[in-house]
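Aim 2, interim progress: modelling of the magnesium ion-bound target.
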Amino acid sequence: MNTKVSVIEDLHLDKKYIHEAAEIIKSGGVVAFPTETVYGLGADALNEEAVKKIFIAKGRPQDNPLIIHVCDKDVSLLVNDIPTVARKMMENFWPGPLTIILNKKDIIPSVTSAGLCTIGIRMPANDIALKLIELSGKPIAAPSANISGRPSPTDIERCVQDLNGKVDYILGGEKSNVGVESTIVDCTIDPPCILRPGGITLEMLREIDDKIYIDPAIMTTPSENLKPKAPGMKYRHYAPKAKVTIVEGNLQKTIEKINEIVQNYIEKDLRVGIIATEETKELYKAGEIISLGSRKELYAVAKNLFETLRAFDDLNVDVILSESFEEEGVGIAIMNRLRKAAGFDIIKV
Ligand code: AMP
Ligand code: MG
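Predicted structure of the complex, ligand included:
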């Protein structure tokens, strides 16, 4: 397949590219586009054949539902029973990195919701994404624009790397601002439950309903008796090619432990990557070191996380050792992605 790639530098001057991409959505094609969380791979959410193409391009398991992206807070055409708490969330956090799960209407084909009677909906805070949805006149179903299992792309180069030749159009804009996927909150139950942590934090959601909680299954090792409610959570995710291990605990001990392990790997002739921070990067003695940013700026750390995992692939490291982060605010999302990238291979110090 021939993939057209266009970069939007100025929303007004380059609008013709968004028009082109919108025509592709209308005619049942697939388009990668920027959002504030990560780049998305979109198709007309109401067109079964178009949605199937997303699953094929990504190699995505069919039982992993998609999120529908809208450009308007009125979602009454798509879902039933919108509770007051969901309306308040839309008022407070849309456009933004919050996906709300509600009971779907029949107009949404079951391929989009992967056979579930619920659907996740969000309004992205990105002008190119909003214009694309508006011009296509369709709700756009879009998972992240990566090959299934890989770290999500946060810029156009990474989209091209994964999807060139597999999709109709790649629309580029600026680097994704949030850097991790949206928070997903299930509002079909009371109190609502967070199925995936993201840029809208538990603390922010509790301003709306102080009983909102995080599904306990998502931070622990997948086990037989704790089944996560978000189907996607059971799959290996966000993983670079190298094996990832996280060292969790006291920071000083973490640095000592990582230095010790790195030494062992180097003696075995393995190439090692270290996920460090501004505060610690000088303290490692060997290995390829990438800083995610300052520990005082967790939003910047989140923004750099997936790009760093992919950068280690470019460096051809065999193993990656990562520091851990405080599980507060967006730190919960960072640790969720890191642990999944590591397949829950964690050393406690
Ligand atoms: P991504 O493909 O990276 O955008 O991830 C979409 C995530 O949303 C996956 O983890 C899905 O399992 C989750 N998701 C989407 N729709 C639903 C739903 N109706 N119920 C539960 N989780 C959902
Ligand atoms: Mg994804």
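The first helix runs from residue 15 to 26. The pocket of magnesium ion (ligand 2) is lined by residues 143-144, 152 (CB under 6 Å).
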